Predict the structure.
Amino acid sequence: VTSLLASGCSNSASSKKEADGANSSPKYELKNINFPLDKKVTLKFLTQSSPIAPKDPNDKLIWKRVEKDTNVHIDWTNYPWEQFGDKRNLELASGDLPDAVFHAGLSDNDILRYAKQGVIVPVETLIDKYMPNFKKVLDTRPEYKKLITASDGHIYSFPWIEELGSGKEAIQALDDIPWINKKWLDELGLKMPTTTDELEKVLIAFKEKKPEGKNDIIPMSFMINHGGEDPAMLLGAFGSGDNYDHYVVSEDKKVVYTANQEGYKKGIEWLHQLQQKGLIDKEAFTQDWNTYVAKGKNGRYGLYFTWDRANISGNNEDYVPLPPLKGPDGQINVARTNGYGFDRGRMVVTSANKNLELTAKWIDKAYEPIQSVQNNWGTYGDKKQQNIFELTSNGSLKHLPLGSTSPWDLRQKTNVDGPLAVLDNYYGTVTTMPDDAAWRLDILHKIYVPSMKATYNYPPIFLDKEDQDQLTQLETVVKPYVERKKAEWILKGGIEKQWDDYLKQLDKNGLPKLLDIKQKALDKFNAGE
């Protein structure tokens, strides 16, 4: 299906362009614009969407309503996700530019490169003059203005912002929650483990006593170096812990690399001991997502890791969160991630755009609170699709129970993503919080946040081009090396003997320079507070 959608999509996109002859709209000479316009006009945008979404974005109810409210028709060139990156880069390199790129998926490198080439234009003046909704977001949360401003003082892109809790209480503060089989603990008369030793004993019991009479039990499984599915969370019992990008920030605001700390070494050694005792899934170092999920759905895991158990073992209550464990030295810690509900490069305006005021006011509509909420999750009152929301009598949006429908699948079919802002103070006023998010925040608050020692984490700072290029270059050497050694040591052992050589190799690979760039940027960011 994907390939049919993909080819259908790209063919219609290219033939449409040949017919039109240009990717951008003519100059409409509109000033002091108020919506809806007296006469309909068209803007031409490049975008991407899920292969399960309508091929023409204008078939989505959200866009039908926006067109009615504004009298602006959007002529979309839409590619499916997996094709979009390449197609976008080709179009932006061709010189025949669209008016804007919506849901642009641009990295910091991309933004800075296209800005330097003059492919995309600065938008800070547009924000000040024509975008009261977005300006209000930036006034309410000045840190976002800092995060979208390049080192040359310009703003080149419109962000996606989704707040769900803040600081340690943010939903992204921990991604790899360990889920333990409570049904098996109860059947075997075992208490919830509170130390690394107790967990080991529990995993041995799972292996040897075969709860539910199962012969294919896997005491512990994970997907090594795979974000939320990695066992990094357990390493907090041995020191500063670990997370998916291996950076933490100390109490004196120093950037620390997790994977060269003494506690990391001890934690990896402990995981190797579990591996030697046959307590870790043999496929944990090679399996893909589908394999991991298939075994989870069959209830084979004693302990596994992921963001939300429904992804792996379905939405039953057999699995519950394993609390942070006390390590051999009595240490308990949960390392925070550096995750934020923030994407800098969600929309850009190109230098071919002859209708800047019109475009800016259209984008600003996406930052209206009620519109942002729908763009992010989906809408209400759809006669053809299941709805994410109902519109209440006071004009706010209430999340509907979705039954057995996957919230993610429904979002792909009905939301429009792109630039938006959902701030914490919208919950209870503009919208309710999604049930799965409220549930997860509650788990974090009660079980994990009390053991998060770190006051700070590393924000998504916008580096200058030179630093960004260097960082990217160094990361592509350092990170794969660290993650290859991590997998190898848990599987085969050897960390004790190889540790000194490993530290030397990290230095040789450029880790000191990497930390220097990160530190300099953090100091500068904090100085501007």
